[in-house]
TrEMBL record:
Residues 235-277 form the MYND-type domain. Keywords: Metal-binding, Zinc, Zinc-finger. InterPro entries: Znf_MYND (IPR002893). SUPFAM superfamilies: HIT/MYND zinc finger-like. It comes from Laccaria amethystina LaAM-08-1. It comes from the Eukaryota. This is MYND-type domain-containing protein. One of its GO terms (molecular function) is zinc ion binding. Pfam families: zf-MYND (PF01753).
């Protein structure tokens, strides 16, 4: 299989090298490798370069987009979390908003094991509250993301994160931030600005608003625990999705995919995992 991107034809091996190279370029442009000095924001030119690269990804075939974000998730999510913690929302709003935009573009944790592993890591348990509070305080919407995608990201944090890490033990986001978030969503829904959003964005905004109400009305973290248990049951046990056998092996490199045996592991390697097998950097 081959495809053309930016006027160049790629086979799968060439694309793997190119995807990793593009991921490193995005990380560099996001200042993950060389963090911004305190109180220094992205310049107009720097922000334009990042947005140009992100939007260029949209012309890739769907599988190649997944390859790109999989490589980014494996290599740079830890650095992104560190940057988000250190950035000032008042003096560095562009950089802060851009990093949340990137998070919102990652594939569903149900199908993206590196992102799922990141959300579930105790090392990054503070990130859901940081992102949700950023939404409450106000961030700059950047296409192809938007308020609906950010709400989808927050839903992922709620469903896959450790619900005991919030300050009231009911969700991965602190209680006061959840309250303010619900109020902001409630005031947004039904406004002319809300009605102008694409339907898919409106759906996730309303969905998050409903989830926050459920969390508030349920005892302890019962709602999120039961939801997470259901979602974990939907994750394919064996990397070969057509296999229903119990997984007893794990990929020795990425440690993110399990297999029932060598036969399925070999099949999966030849049918996609080769392009998404990375040593996790966090």
């Amino acid at each position: 299989m081959s495809f053309t991107f930016n006027g160049r034809e790629y086979n799968m091996d060439d694309w793997l090298r190119e995807a990793v190279s593009l991921v490193e370029l995005l990380a560099k442009n996001l200042k993950l490798l060389d963090p911004l000095p305190s109180d220094t924001d992205l310049t107009d030119a720097e922000e334009k370069e990042i947005q140009s690269q992100i939007n260029a990804m949209l012309i890739l075939p769907p599988f190649a987009i997944l390859d790109f974000w999989s490589a980014f998730a494996a290599h740079h999510l830890g650095q992104l979390a560190t940057s988000l913690r250190n950035l000032s929302r008042t003096t560095q709003p562009r950089a802060f908003s851009t990093l949340i935009q990137v998070l919102s573009l990652l594939p569903d944790p149900k199908t993206e094991p590196y992102f799922r592993k990141f959300i579930q890591s105790p090392q990054y348990a503070d990130l859901p509250t940081i992102v949700a509070d950023g939404f409450v305080q106000g961030i700059q919407w950047k296409r192809p993301s938007g308020p609906g995608q950010i709400c989808g990201l927050i839903i992922h944090f709620l469903f896959w994160g450790n619900s005991t890490k919030g300050d009231d033990g009911k969700a991965s986001i602190d209680a006061d931030v959840r309250t303010k978030l619900a109020e902001k969503l409630g005031s947004l829904i039904g406004t002319p600005q809300f009605e102008q959003l694409p339907q898919i964005q409106r759906v996730d905004i309303e969905r998050l608003h409903g989830i926050l109400k459920c969390i508030q009305g349920m005892p302890e973290d019962h709602y999120l625990r039961s939801t997470r248990s259901y979602l974990e049951g939907q994750v394919d046990d064996c990397g070969r999705t057509s296999c229903d056998e119990e997984a007893v092996l794990i990929c020795s490199k990425c440690k993110s995919v399990k297999y029932c045996g060598k036969k399925c592991q070999t099949w999966h390697w030849k049918n996609g995992h080769k392009l998404r097998c990375f040593q996790v950097a966090y």
